[in-house]
């Protein structure tokens, strides 16, 4: 992985572990996506890696919503496994 992707994954994992350690039952994570052309289909760099890291920390993705204004954001809701 590249530096930016590594940073996104490691910070998401740290936050997920902290939330689990604090005995939260819900974890909400906002993922900023690189600017992309909304008319084109493409992969979202780093999103799969972040989701996998959070799920490895004991969370399960339940819902997500995307917002695309100037730059995309994905808000993900996880629950404890």
Main sheet specs: 3 strands, antiparallel
Helical percent range? 25-40%
Uncertain runs are: none
Terminal Cα span: 27 Å
The succession of helices and strands, N to C, reads HEHEE
The figure for the number of domains is 1
What strand order characterises the main sheet? 1-3-2
Rounded average pLDDT: 87
Count of DSSP strands:
3
Q: What general outline do the C-alpha atoms trace?
A: globular
Strand composition percent:
25-35%
* Tally of individual helices: 2
Query: Based on helices, strands and strand pairing, what is the structural class?
Result: alpha+beta
If you had to describe this structure to a student in words, what would you say it looks like?
With 81 residues, this protein is an alpha+beta fold. Helices cover 36% and strands 35% of the residues. It has helices at residues 3-21, 47-56, and strands at 26-32, 59-69, 71-80. The chain has a three-stranded antiparallel beta sheet, covered by helices on one side. A hairpin with a 1-residue loop joins strand 2 and strand 3. The longest helix has 19 residues, at 3-21. 17% of the residues are buried.
SSE diagram, text form:
Layout: H1 3-21, E1 26-32, H2 47-56, E2 59-69, E3 71-80
Antiparallel strand pairs: 1-3, 2-3
Please summarize what this structure is:
By secondary structure, this protein is an alpha+beta fold.
List keywords for this structure.
81 residues; three-stranded antiparallel beta sheet; globular
């Amino acid at each position: 992985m590249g530096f930016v992707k590594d940073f996104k994954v490691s910070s998401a994992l740290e936050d997920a572990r902290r939330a689990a350690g604090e005995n939260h039952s819900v974890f909400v994570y906002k993922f900023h996506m690189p600017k992309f052309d909304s008319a084109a289909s493409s992969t979202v760099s780093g999103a799969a890696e972040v989701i996998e890291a959070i799920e490895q920390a004991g969370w399960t993705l339940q819902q997500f919503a995307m917002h695309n204004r100037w730059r995309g954001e994905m808000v993900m809701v996880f629950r404890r496994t």
